[in-house]
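Support case: xanthosine-5'-monophosphate complex. Customer-provided input:
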Amino acid sequence: MENKSIIIIDYGSQYTQLIARRIRENKTYCEIFPYDVSLEKIKNHNPIGVILSGGPNSVTKSFDNTLLKYFIMSDIPILGICFGMQAICKEFGGTVVESQKREYGSAIFKINEMDPLFHGINNSFEVWMSHGDSVTIVPNEFKLIGSTGENNISAIKHKSKLIYGLQFHPEVTHTEDKGKIIENYVNNICNSKNEWSIKNIVSSSIQSIQDEVKNESVILGLSGGVDSSVAAAIINKAIGSQLTCIFVNNGLLRLNEEEQVKNAFRSFKGIKIKFVNAEKIFLDNLKGVVDPEQKRKIIGNTFIDVFQNEAEKIKDARWLGQGTIYPDVIESAAESSSAHLIKSHHNVGGLPENMKLKLIEPLRKLFKDEVRLLGKEIGLSEEIINRHPFPGPGLGVRILGEVKSEFADILREADNIYISMIREAKLYDKISQAFSVFIPSKTVGVTGDGRVYSYIIALRAVGTEDFMTAKPFRFPNGFIEDVATRIINEVPNISRVCYDISSKPPATIEWE
Ligand code: XMP
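Agent response - structure generated as follows:
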């Protein structure tokens, strides 16, 4: 796969991952490298094309041109976007000036000269701009192929080489080219054979797991979430009973979670799942603790103890399987130069070092939507694949303050009613994340002839693209009232239900 990929050199653009996804949507493997990646690594990769991303810096200050010189010398097709275009201009002797003001938002782009990059696109269309510096003089070896506004230089091409620069962002949907520019770059300029497909990913993943693991054993912490489930499923397909999954019930799971996991893996031949009931240990460790971060730490550390204890019972385990996905790898790499970190909020973080296990991470090159497609391809149910995210500390951060087993039972019942009603109303896939929160304050109510004095449940549902910002979901009229009525009627010790209408920011998605 390596020598059929397009690579992105990331100069810190907020859109870098989006460019990678757009390329993969065109059935071409794409990998992101930080701008300070070694030339050796790039040479070994042998890409069919390269994209220089945008970024917050100015080429007028400093720019290390080692990589760019190599790409030019090797005649690898280059597309510079925003900062990337400015870097190309600087390298070829054009003029880039620092602007006082950032140009941000949409502009009308006009094609000045037809080019394979623009096949199938209207002569003029809306594009998305986000830049500070501008190119004011096109280098001699280049020509202008597109402009915005009053002849602003917005698209350039080398006169004899496959080197392009775009001042706008073709990867965002606000640019109204219907994805054609990236598609043309991948197919017409880089001549991709379009071999990156889910079927190929399945077969090459199975092959590489078999080659790596050989006849040794693998253990994997299975949570019932999408990533660990898909990782377990693909490792099972590759090495069958050499894999043992460990499912830890920490007392903070949703209703029937264990059953759902059993059902999801029923059709997987020879899968070994060890169910460990550690409810008491977790709840004992959490006794009297009210601070959310402290609760998170206790739950994480207890998980490590329980998992390690169980893992030691599995003879000859040499590998730890993990559901690390590509955004985790990129985010970890952005924080340190080592890309092989385990995400810090991941429950099994810290295990490998203690246990001297080698890591097997079959999803580490995939985006979430690709992980879902892969899961579907190998036979996991849509119910598991399309599940809303569930935090590692589970109900531990949805029971405000001290966690008690009776609170967890109440919350599980209420949440099950809420989520089932959302599913019945066919709203589940329209919502990014929905859940209930237990508020350990008592309020007065009347049921039948009697006065009750019981707890509160808050309902939360949000819509979001990336979980960094989120908006409360607007349910159809009457829906929340119906949920509230059922919860109050059916769940003992609840006298009141509220709906959380806070956006993120300033609120977060979880309450703790
Ligand atoms: P917040 O509450 O920060 O949540 O807006 C953003 C997303 O992250 C999830 N989340 C967690 N996931 N461990 C996890 O594995 C955690 O401690 C944790 N806290 C929040 C949250 O459910 C949402 O999807």
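The CA atoms of residues 328 and 343 lie 6 Å apart.

Case will auto-close in a few days if no follow-up is received.
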